[in-house]
Amino acid sequence: MKSSGRSVRTWAVPLSVALAGLLLTACQGGSEPSGSVASPAPASALASPKTDATASPGTTAMDGRIIGTPDAQACKVPGTDEIRQKLGAIAAQIQQGVQSVTETQGVKETSCTFSLVGVPNGQDPDPGNALTISTTVYPDTAALGKVELPRLMMSPKSVDGAGERAWYARNQLSSSTEYVLESASKNVITRITLAVPVQAPPVEQSQDKLTSLLQAP
Description:
Blueprint: H1 12-18, H2 20-23, E1 66-67, H3 80-87, E2 98-104, E3 107-115, E4 130-137, H4 141-145, E5 157-158, E6 165-172, E7 176-185, E8 188-197, H5 206-214
Antiparallel strand pairs: 1-2, 2-3, 3-4, 4-8, 5-6, 6-7, 7-8
Helix pairs in contact: 3-5
């Protein structure tokens, strides 16, 4: 999708995520470890919007969120070299992260989308073929406690050693497969989504690979 002027792209990332509630299939190809909890994606848990990194801070997105001030360091840890090392061949062509920041009612989300393939000038990364790392900071632990977790996951299973609470799931969409790790600690939620085209081979050891990115310094 091409940017136009200073327009705000409010739904590039959440479109793939929000559609998960409609397009996720109950029966996934391949097997999840026994003990997985079959849980449909909560309809109320909408993801934050993808916004134009060039939009001016203070611009209001369609859902009422305010475009925040970009952080020059936000998409540098983990960096592309570390992502290649941890994800392996699937990240051989990883591109620099495209950042978006939104703020509303004391909640700030910073999202970095790293395309897995080259992106033509003037075009956005395709969230269905990218690694997206989103960090949402709440005012305090009480505010985070009101959030229904995990968000938008099919058959999530609990993960140990990835924050105070963490879940992993594989979401099967019509055009892509999402490997998702969501972690909550104190007043912060970190969500890592590795999305590949549906025709791509399965990502081996995907849970361990995403966890290693979460633990990156």
